[in-house]
Amino acid sequence: MLENLKDFVKPGSEEESLVKQLDFSRLPRHVAVIMDGNGRWAKKRKLPRVEGHRAGAKSVRQAVETCAHLGIEYLTLYAFSKENWKRPKKEVATLWRLLEEYLKNEDKVLVKNKFRLKVIGQIEAIPDSTRKELKRVEELTKNNTRLTVVLALNYGGRDEIVDAVKKIATDKNLDIDSLNEEKFSQYLYTIHVPDPDLLIRTSGELRVSNFLLWQIAYAEIWITQEFWPDFRKKHLLQALVDYQKRERRFGDIYPR
Ligand code: FPP
Fold this sequence. Notes:
single chain, Undecaprenyl pyrophosphate synthetase, 9 helices, globular
């Protein structure tokens, strides 16, 4: 149970009632999020799309804080997919700039709170200045263990699997007959990161969009109609309460 419940949720609020429904011994270790709907959020308000991304960065802060407060160990955010390069140049440039700003502003917060940053994806193609910031903050936080924030950037799930196969094909120390699921996982970008238990997608779309294809094999999926910039602590708590109502059988049958 949370020690400082009052600092985390307002007494009498919906958030408080959700927290009280949680079984803290059965929280997901890893929550992954497809942040979707920034553009539609902005359009609804007659704002440029980039304003949706700016507002989305605030939701990122809140999701990180909430996971840390609850004791969730890993939070993976799908922040830039391989397909996102198809967007107008200006929007793409703004997305990288926002990320850079986020890293410059939040590095002290990450250090102070013992958060670790890890990036997954084909990072070589990320603009130089953003890539340097990412490397700097990854290095700065690499020994932290409280919450690992995994940013999926220039990420594609199929690419990740192809890249793993390439690494396997050139690994002279690998006895190919010994290859199994567990060993294969060690060639993925997510080495040392457990598979997500819960996958959240905002804005109501019913797709996995090439995200963590291997890793979500047994993840519970929770979809909300909310656009990502409107995603708040309340929604994460709703997802967690719902997750705990599900029976995760992993192909087995219960009760025996
Ligand atoms: C999806 O909305 C969102 C993205 C492609 C980018 C997510 C980026 C951020 C939240 C900004 C900063 C990130 C960090 C990690 C600080 P969409 O543009 O696809 O929305 P739409 O489907 O309504 O067009």
